[in-house]
Amino acid sequence: MTTIEIKGVIVMNDYKEVYEWYGIECTSPSDVINQLPTDNSPVEIIINSGGGHVDAGNEIYARLKAYEGEVTTKPYSIAASAASIIAMAGDKVLIAPTAQLMIHNVSGLVDGDHRAHIEEAKVLEGYNKAIANAYILKTGKSEEEILQMMNNETWLNANEAVEKGFADGVLFENKIQYVASSYAILPNQAIDKARLMMKNQSSPPSVEGEVTKSDFEAFKNEITNLINQLKEEPTSTPPQVVTKRKGFLF
What we know:
By secondary structure, this protein is of the alpha/beta class. It is built from ten helices and eight strands. The chain folds into two domains: 2-173, Alpha-Beta Complex (2-enoyl-CoA Hydratase, Chain A, domain 1), CATH 3.90.226.10; 176-232, no CATH class. The chain has helices spanning 16-21, 29-33, 54-66, 82-87, 114-139, 143-151, 158-163, 175-180, 188-200, 213-232, and strands at residues 2-10, 26-27, 43-52, 71-80, 92-95, 100-103, 154-157, 169-170. The radius of gyration is 28 Å and the shape is elongated. It starts with a strand and ends in an 18-residue tail after the last helix. Residues 176-186, 203-209 and 235-246 have low confidence and may be disordered.
């Protein structure tokens, strides 16, 4: 699987060299596009960005949505502003348990008299409605609700992002479940039985090889039998796994 990292400021392609000259970490659309596989194999997008230029974020989003292979976006630390749009491009969005996602209104700067500012306000409102579509498509929420969340500058932790439909799941949360369901881990009853057998041995072997192969085989067989009994007659109900399912800055 191809892994593409989106870090730092989201910038337009022709701004990238300036940011790099200043030593500022950044990602441009071409950084992402040039790494997409030609065979449409799965890709994962690791995101740690506070946002940047809205047009750059929109282009990355559209390119990932148009990619014919499976795309999984993974906010590892923060996916804010323009980076949150990019996160919505995933067929699956899996957020780290310590990560945050933030959505808000587009902002910009304008010179001129009151007419210029009025016109700028209309442009910004149009941008807000345009990018709201990315959140609407992912969450199924109404435009009114999404725009209100953007007006409020809404921050979501991992669980809130899943609850509100911005993410499909929390990374790493199933690892413990996999271990707990594996018979490679001895059940507590087997541990207790082994401890009892060890305790009944008055002293540890003083001569190398005192514990014979037959002793070891007998012990192993008893543990195996105990595990098999536990499989057939579980002493407790296993836990139920719930599957959880242009210059404008943003």
